[in-house]
Design brief:
Layout lengths: L6 E5 L4 H12 L3 E6 L7 H11 L5 E5 L5 H10 L4 E4 L13 H22 L3 E7 L23 H20 L3 E6 L2 E2 L8 H10 L3 E4 L6 E2 L2 E2 H12 L23 E6 L5 E2 H12 L4 E4 L15 H7 L7 H16 L3
Parallel strand pairs: 1-2, 1-4, 2-3, 4-5, 5-6, 6-11, 7-10, 8-13
Antiparallel strand pairs: 9-12
Helix pairs in contact: 1-2, 1-7, 3-4, 4-5, 6-8, 8-10
């Protein structure tokens, strides 16, 4: 089933992924209704700068509100019309969840529940929502597959993302809501999040300050360039989840269902050692990093590696941007945006 749609609601439109997805859809001629609460988890000025880029498009409209504000959400669904909803609004960050658990409950659980209710009442044709590679938690079998059990999260952030998948499945079962969850793997690129490693490392190296290298560098991440994430999302948006006719309750497949519900990994499928990642950045900057080696942080996992076979089979897309290319583009943007020479 291929869905032809004209209008999309994107929550978290001022965020890193939400901004890039909105811009891509606007450039392609779709009508985008954006939502964001512009919270202060990281630099609000960066979020506003992203929004300014989007406001140049006449087919973009924006609401500043929070998913946890049910009345505001209800009003937007009543006033506007859209076939697809993409939920990218969430309290992000593994380490922040150790000190601010209440923010994750409010945004990722209460807010997501409010959104599900609106989608049910409005009979939205496809809900696409952000999950995370963090849900794999204590799993060690690589590559991580959507068909693996993920019942052992190691951070509250991961637990809320797993909960989102369960909540969406329940609404798919009860109301026939077509739901697709996307597990993103370490997204990076221009206009990125200041709390992510590439952003932190780049600033520190340029300012000749030490970078924090956790787990003494014994980390691997499936770094995925933002344009690849967006391309995968756009293809999935027009393909509402369908029931798996081979699904069996005797041997339940976690990645599919007997209802219109689906989970995909979107990752580069090329895990990179953290020290090799730093070396790529050093080469691009032409500067060496001062490394401060530290123990692994609570809530972190030592490695991520995405199995993307289902993504390739179902939508014909495989992320391809090499790390050297992606890091170069990020550094060019970073220097230009922050005025580094």
């Amino acid at each position: 089933m291929t869905l032809r749609f004209n209008s999309v609601l994107i929550t978290g439109a001022a965020g890193f992924i939400g901004f890039h997805l909105s811009r891509r859809l606007l450039q392609d001629g779709y009508h985008v209704v954006g939502m964001d609460n512009l919270n202060a988890y990281y630099d609000v000025a960066l979020k506003k700068a992203r929004l300014e880029q989007l406001k140049h498009f006449t087919n973009f409209s924006f609401f500043k509100t929070d998913l946890a504000r049910k009345d505001d959400l209800d009003r937007i669904f009543e006033e506007r019309s859209f076939e697809v909803v993409v939920n990218l609004a969430a309290q992000a960050g593994v380490r922040y969840s150790l000190t601010h658990p209440e923010a994750y409950i409010r945004s990722n659980l209460l807010g997501f529940c409010n959104l599900l209710e609106c989608c049910r009442r409005k009979v939205i044709e496809h809900l696409v929502f952000a999950s995370s590679s963090s849900v794999y938690g204590a799993n060690t079998k690589m590559p991580f597959s959507v068909h693996h059990n993920v019942d052992h999260p190691v951070s509250l952030y991961a637990a809320t993302k797993k909960a989102n998948e369960l909540m969406a499945h329940t609404y798919s079962h009860l109301y026939g809501l077509h739901c697709t969850g996307l597990r993103f793997f370490t997204v990076y690129g221009p206009w990125g999040r200041p709390d992510m490693a590439l952003f932190l490392f780049t600033r520190a190296i340029l300012e000749k300050k030490p970078i924090k290298v956790f787990n003494h560098g014994n980390m691997q991440r499936d770094f995925t360039y933002i344009d690849d994430i967006v391309e995968g999302m756009v293809r999935i948006m027009g393909r509402p989840a369908q029931p798996n006719p081979r699904w069996s309750g005797d041997r339940p497949d976690p990645g599919t269902s007997y209802v219109p519900y689906r989970i995909y990994n979107i990752g580069n499928h090329r895990p990179t050692n953290l020290l090799d990642f730093i070396e790529v950045l050093e080469n691009e900057l032409g500067m060496k990093a001062q490394k401060q080696f530290l123990d692994q942080q609570p809530g972190d996992v030592p490695a991520t590696f995405a199995d993307i076979d289902d993504l390739v089979k179902d939508v014909g897309f495989r992320p391809q941007t090499p790390l050297t290319v992606g890091v170069k583009r990020f550094v060019q943007w970073f220097k230009g945006y922050y005025g580094y020479r």
